[in-house]
Structures are given as C-alpha cells and as structure tokens.
Amino acid sequence: MTTGIEDSSHSRHGEVLMRKLYALYTVNNFMEMIYNPFAKPFEEEHPDIRIYNIMDDSLLTDTRAQGKMTPVIATRMLHYAQAAEASGAEGIIVTCTSVNEATRLIRPFLHIPIINIEEPVAEMAVEKGSRIGVLATLPTSPAAIGRVIQEKADEKGRKVEIVNRVVEGAFDILCAGDRPGHDEMIRRELYRLAGEVDVIAFAQISMSLLQFDPVEVPVCMIGRSGFESIYNKMNQ
C-alpha cells in the first residue's frame, strides 16, 4: 500500500493562498493520469485555489478485490476526508468512480462539500439521451456510475436504459505503462457501442485522454467538469 499527502501546487510568487481544494486519488500514477492533464491546468486558471493531493492505491485494490464498496473502505475514506477538512480544506474531489458510494455515505459527516468527479458526467449523459452506454475498464465502475446516472434521471423524472461495457484488462495495461495498447482496446469497444446507444459516458477518468475518430453520438468524458463542479460548490 502506498499512502501520502502531496502538495502539488505551483509557486505563486510568494502569495499565500487561503483556499484549499483536496483531491483523493486511488492510483499511484495519478500525476500523469489525472493531476497533470486536469487538476494542474484548472489550478493555474484559478489562482484563488491551491490543490493538495491525497493518494491511497489500496482503496481501489481492496474495492476491486471485494467487488464492491465495504464499510471498512468507506471508513478509511472518511478519515482522509476528515483530515483534509481539519487541515483547512474548503472542498474535496474524489477522482475514482469505483469508490463513489463511499463519497455519498461520508458526505453527511463533513462540513465542506465533497463530490465524486464523475457526477457532472452522469448528469450530462441523462441530458443527452435515454439509452446510455457506459464504457469502463474496471468491472466495479459501471455499477458505480450507473447509480449516479439513475439518481440524476430520477431527479429529472426521466426514464433511462443503461448499457454497460467493460474492456477487461485495459486498466491493468495502462497501469503497466502501455497507453497505446489501452487506448486501442477502448477505441474498438467505443466504436461498437456507439451504434447501439444515444450517448456514451466514460466511467473512469483514466480513459479521458483517449483520442478517437468522431462517432455519431455524444461522448461524455470525466475530467474538467468535476473540478468545475467542486469549485462552484466551494463558492456557494
């Protein structure tokens, strides 16, 4: 298990920033997969916030091993969230879809907003179609984002049908450093799924750097929208 809290913010020429946003990651290559392409640019565009990073890759490992969220895993996430709040965080964003049930469970125990990064994507998918394809590379992700999609649909009084596709093995290939192999596996399934649904939602941010040829349906990808959502909640 690897755990740690890392300050990844940039120098502000001596300026002291008082607003803290914490991001919780469950993969040890989070810098290249999530922070550098999504969090860092957002932080640079919003000089009023400073992003701090918490990483514990055992959260995802244990969730995959159990096949679901458990009270023990949720409690560990609560401890991280409470530590962030105690350090002065004004918001927390959880970047792993597979653990989003824990985010929902621990929300009432905090005095600051906490969201999962895929929540805005679930809402966008409901807005764009009724037959929603969920594309994932982890078997725990479709059920996790599917719950959020159904919640958003119920809030809007809309009926949706969710079509799940998991590209088995692609996530492990990516973690081993083979992004081209990972991307090619996802593209093949993406093109097949596009012919069967109204809209496609990527279930994980690890997929969101994918380059692909245009398809005939909207593709909702996790990333910047999550940071925008938590930032807006911090400002409410």
Portion of residues within helices: 40-55%
State the shape.
Answer: globular
Largest sheet: 5 strands, mixed
Structure class = alpha/beta
Number of strands: 9
The order of strands across the largest sheet is: 1-3-2-4-5
Gap between N and C termini, in Å? 36 Å
Strand content: 15-25%
- Give the radius of gyration: 17 Å
Mean pLDDT: 92
Order of helices and strands: EEHEHHEHEHEHEHHEEH
Supply the number of helical segments: 9
Low-confidence stretches: 5-14
Topology overview:
Layout: E1 3-7, E2 20-25, H1 30-45, E3 50-56, H2 58-66, H3 71-86, E4 89-94, H4 100-106, E5 114-116, H5 119-128, E6 131-136, H6 141-156, E7 161-166, H7 170-175, H8 179-194, E8 199-202, E9 219-220, H9 224-234
Parallel strand pairs: 2-3, 2-4, 4-5, 6-7, 6-8, 8-9
Antiparallel strand pairs: 1-3
What does this structure look like?
The chain has 9 helices and 9 strands. The longest helix has 16 residues, at 30-45. Helix 3 (71-86) packs across helix 4 (100-106) and helix 5 packs across helix 6. It starts with a strand and ends with a helix. The chain is 45% helix and 19% strand. The chain has helices at residues 30-45, 58-66, 71-86, 100-106, 119-128, 141-156, 170-175, 179-194, 224-234, and strands at 3-7, 20-25, 50-56, 89-94, 114-116, 131-136, 161-166, 199-202, 219-220. The strands form 2 sheets. Strands 1-3-2-4-5 form a 5-stranded mixed beta sheet, with helices on both faces. A 4-stranded parallel beta sheet has the order 7-6-8-9, sandwiched between helices. By secondary structure, it is an alpha/beta fold. Strand 4 (89-94), helix 4 and strand 5 (114-116) form a beta-alpha-beta unit. Mean pLDDT is 92; it is low at 5-14.
